[in-house]
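ok here's Serine hydrolase:
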Amino acid sequence: MRLFADRPSQADGSRARIASAILNWERSLAHWKRVLTVIFSALLTVIAVVCLGVGLNIVGLGRDTQAIPPAPVTEVEAPQLPVPLTDDAIKAAGLHEATPTVSVSQMTATALDNLSAVDGSSALDTVAISLSSDQREQIEQNLQAFADAGAQVSFAVADLGSGGVIAANGGVARYPASSIKAPYIVSLLQEGAVNLDETASGSTLSAQINADHIAGVLRYSDNDGYDALWNAHLNSAIIPWSEGLVENPERMRGFQYPDVSAVELAKMWVKTYGYLFADAEGEPNAGETASAPAREWLASSMQHSLNSSIDAAHGGEENPDGTVVLSKAGWINGEGDYYALNDAGIVLPSGESGNEPGYAIAIMSNACGRNDLLADLAGTLHNILS
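and the structure:
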């Protein structure tokens, strides 16, 4: 009989110590393996984000853009958006009359109705607004300048305060070039195909990609970004969004740059006005609701956009008169036998009360390279409505 049978032998003790050491080593190895895995994954994520950022920023500005490097989205200060309307709202000068308090949806509905009432074939037509002989003559001089340059032009402008509309050849369908890009993006956001709050905050990687695309398209007319959005969504949002704005929206199906008239393009910007400035909780214009900061981010991306003649009419980035211009131009000179120089957007005049609703404007022409003609016409219309 072995004495101390429950006592491990020296060999047993050695094996136990070795086994314990091996176990500790395996535990240590597993621990460091997990640590290294986390570090390696984090490193790969950083490298991927950096590479993605470089790839997204090296964009070819494409068919109707210039080689201007994109600036950070935050570079342009968000415009001062109209405050919620009160009893003292909409007190503008000139042709504007003090009006009872109305909601943004009421203003946009009136503007859309009056745009629909325009004689689209008229050389110069007005609805709910009267032009003096001097004002009419000035517009006609601007239109004649296009003719003298061998170009055609049409325009439509709708005053959100008074509902007054002025148009020339407003029903003539023209190739929009990149001026259609802003309404296309707004349709994605308002129809809910792209979430604006997520995009503006960059809360996910896909949201950051959408933000880069949207900011690049709106500010620099980036064709690659527009192609990416188009390939993802096609006409799925803009056709339903354009109901009541475009005659037979189905005609746009399959077209990335569908022909529209100046009246139709102006209507799109009236609806954009409703989306940007309506109370997200109380206005039907808001559609797929988004927070005020998110909509301010969207509006800031439309400010001082590349090649905008409307913005140039107000001094561009120097902005001496304090007017806020949210616009998107489009231009093409012979590629695919297309010729266009267009600009459209929203103009928010400066004023003491800060409540002037502003107006929506669309100018479409084939006056390639003659931004001065568009800027002069935009300036004339601004003076009439201010």
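+1. Residues 235 and 253 are 6 Å apart (CA to CA).
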